[in-house]
Write a structure and sequence with these properties.
Layout (H helix, E strand, L loop, with lengths): L10 H8 L2 E2 L2 E2 L3 H19 L5 H12 L2 H11 L62 H12 L13 H14 L9 H9 L11 E5 L4 E6 L2 E7 L12 E4 L2 E2 L3 E4 L2 E10 L2 E6 L12 E4 H10 L7 E4 L1
Parallel strand pairs: 3-12, 10-11
Antiparallel strand pairs: 1-2, 3-4, 4-5, 6-12, 7-9, 8-9, 9-10
Length: 317
């Protein structure tokens, strides 16, 4: 053998790597045949499971494309960039090119395979009936309940006869003043709601006597350091403001006093010509010429109960 001449392997060795020649053709190597056989087996499995779960299809595709999550992440990085689909969105070559099997509608399934229907929603409980709106002229158990609740908090309603008259209207207005509500004397929803949680007011510091709250326009009767009665009142309007201070009842008239500025029913004077007296009108706002007006029935009650006797302290604030 001369230098520069190529050494050719023996025919047996060429046949091992490249296959033997048959009729001018070369047989495919064993590695190629094994790969083709694996592809056919995988295709058969893929078409058999075509109607199966998406999880099995994804697992098969991932196992052919790479190892574990790395192959899945690789397909996500490369797939959606151009078409917006991943390997699980469309069939791959060699794994069944036909369309996916659609799910069978529930009404076409055999009765034994249909899922149980969802139970109907539970009905909502009925809303509790609201408290009635009560006003002057009303009567009945609801009015009696209103009067009982007001009396338990100290608001004077007279005898509580289950009739919504002037005394109940005055008591409701006094309650609304103390609680900072609209002063209309009508027991509406807001008043009922506040009645349920209200507490009896406390005096500012006297043991016995009367307190007149100019800001809230109410009169408190205090005994042994406790508020025992609350009355609606109307004090001096602008220009006739009732002066604050500590006073005592020093004069009284048991009857109607016809004064230049109006009529005063059974007045009890505590500061010169300023008195607590009965009147036909006790509005929600200050309206007098300096006196503290209460209803005529309330004034009679103060006389008969002795709760505003001569010498009783009167604190105005």
């Amino acid at each position: 053998m001369s230098h520069g001449q190529r050494v050719r392997p023996a025919a047996s060795h060429r046949g091992w790597f490249l296959g033997r020649r048959t009729g001018g053709r070369r047989r495919p190597p064993l590695v190629v045949l094994a790969a083709a056989l694996l592809a056919l087996l995988a295709a058969a499995c893929g078409s058999e499971d075509e109607g199966g779960s998406a999880t099995r299809s994804s697992t098969t595709i991932a196992s052919r494309g790479g190892a574990g999550e790395e192959a899945g992440s690789s397909s996500r990085r490369s797939g959606p960039g151009a078409s917006g689909k991943t390997a699980s969105d469309e069939t791959l070559p060699g794994l069944g090119d036909g369309p996916r099997a659609e799910e069978t509608p529930l009404d076409e399934l055999p009765p034994g395979e249909r899922p149980a229907p969802d139970p109907p929603p539970a009905p909502e409980p009925p809303a509790p009936p609201g408290d009635p709106v009560l006003r002057s002229g009303g009567e009945g158990p609801a009015v009696a309940e209103l009067q009982l609740r007001l009396a338990s908090l100290g608001y004077w309603v007279g005898d509580g006869d289950a009739h919504y008259g002037a005394l109940t209207s005055q008591a409701v207005m006094a309650f609304q003043k103390v609680e900072g509500l609209e002063r209309d004397g009508i027991a509406g929803p807001v008043t009922w709601l506040r009645l349920a949680a209200a507490r009896r007011p406390a005096p500012i510091g006297i043991a016995d006597g009367v307190e007149i709250d100019l800001g809230r326009q109410v009169l408190f009767v205090v005994q042994a350091g406790q508020v025992v009665e609350i009355h609606n009142t109307s004090t001096g309007r602008p220009g006739w403001a009732t002066p604050p201070g500590r006073f005592a009842v020093d004069r009284q008239i048991d009857g109607m006093r016809h004064a230049p500025l109006g009529n005063l029913w059974r007045p009890k004077y505590f500061n010169s010509g300023i008195a607590v007296h009965g009147a036909a009108s006790i509005p929600a706002q200050p309206a007098s010429h300096g006196c503290a007006r209460v209803s005529m029935a309330a004034m009679d009650h103060l006389w008969e109960s002795g709760r505003l006797a001569m010498g009783s302290p009167v604190v105005v604030y």
